[in-house]
Amino acid sequence: MNKKNIPFMLQGIKTLEFATMREAFSEKKSLIELGVGADFGIKSLEECQISCSPEITFFQDEKPFLKIKTACYFIVDPETWKAYRKPESHSICFPKGFTDHLLMISIGTLRGVLHAKTEGTEFNQFILPTINVTTLSKGDVEIEIA
């Protein structure tokens, strides 16, 4: 099997967390910092479903004023899923290129959710900039199977 080609499809999207803290934001101050993180998990072992959950926090004076976390759920081809299983360690390990691609899709989705959630508010001015997802992960992603 060619392990470089991983057939998958986006199956679902969920907003896990969304919060605005108006009291922590001042229009008079211009310095805005951005916190970025992401997690991968197994949503369904039977359905060969992996989740990617990016989380973005906007800070001002080290205080968060806007936070959002979403999840994208992807189904991986069952035969391909089996090829990446590591039964000896009760885990599955996907290559960095594949997980970077899922993360890129998930962050783009988060960007759209952020816009929709803040539309018509003062927080809509905070558009998530482009993010080089290849710098967020150090290598292949190994996920423990419970």
Walk me through the structure.
This protein has 146 residues and is of the alpha+beta class. It has one domain (8-144): SecB-like (Bacterial Protein-export protein SecB, Roll), CATH 3.10.420. Helix content is 21%, strand content 42%. It has helices spanning 78-84, 96-118, and strands at residues 8-20, 33-44, 49-60, 63-76, 85-86, 91-94, 141-144. The strands form 2 sheets. Strands 1-4-3-2 form a 4-stranded antiparallel β-sheet. The two termini are 26 Å apart.
Key phrases:
single chain; 146 residues; alpha+beta; Bacterial Protein-export protein SecB; three-stranded antiparallel beta sheet; 2 helices; 21% helix
- Biggest beta sheet attributes: 4 strands, antiparallel
User: Quick one: CATH class?
Assistant: Alpha Beta
User: What's the architecture in CATH terms?
Assistant: Roll
- Report the end-to-end length measured between terminal Cα atoms: 26 Å
User: What is the helix fraction of residues, given as a range?
Assistant: 10-25%
**Could you give the count of β-strands?**
7
Summarize the structure.
By secondary structure, the protein is α+β, with helices and mostly antiparallel strands. The chain has helices at residues 78-84, 96-118, and strands at residues 8-20, 33-44, 49-60, 63-76, 85-86, 91-94, 141-144. The protein has one domain (8-144): Bacterial Protein-export protein SecB (Roll).
